[in-house]
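Sequence in, structure out.
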Amino acid sequence: MNKIENEVPILRVENYSKHFELHEQHKLIPSSENVNLEVYPGQLTALIGPTGAGKSTVLKGIYRSYLPSSGRLLFRTKDNVEVDLAQADEHLILELRKNEIGFVTQFLHALPRQSTEDVVAQPLVQRGMDKMQARDLAREMLSDMNLPEALWGISPATFSGGEKQRVNLARGLVSRPRLLLLDEPTASLDPHTTEKIITLIEKLKEDGIAMLAIFHHPELVKRMADIVVQLTSPIATEKLLKEIA
């Protein structure tokens, strides 16, 4: 599926680049280079490419975990205001993270001794939802993730990698942000749970949520992506240019 005719993108990434500087060695390490993409409501844009192409760096730039070296990250808010996430102040970034932009990473970060159901409910509580209602929604999502009910009341700190990934996904999906960033959302999951995740993502698309996701499996890209953006590795490109010079 291609982009919807006349639809306005919720996110436009224009010539985004990110380099990391090794100060002691006076070297610049390229990560993402001249990335351009668009993300639309109700659609999933997939980022593909080799290791080192900077796919995760793009997501972290949009979420403002990283500041870009160059380029623009134009996000259209619920008030129809276009904001350059690369230039926005920290207060606005925190508000957007709270209410409009979600990020599901490959790693779970949670407070020690916090129950799994409260970890998942946290984004809803932060938005002002009643705690009991938020917990009910969290439990529904944990059930959808095939996480045993016996684990809901304990901390996920000792969970296996696959169990932590389910909790991470549950927290990201339950909050239903306008833009959802997904970094390998089905990594560490068994085939049955992966199918449930696909179903949930398709439902979010039907509800108008925009998604930008990283996948390594071509079959998942084929099944889920409306737009595919392929990145190349700046390091590999630099090496090739040296070889042919």
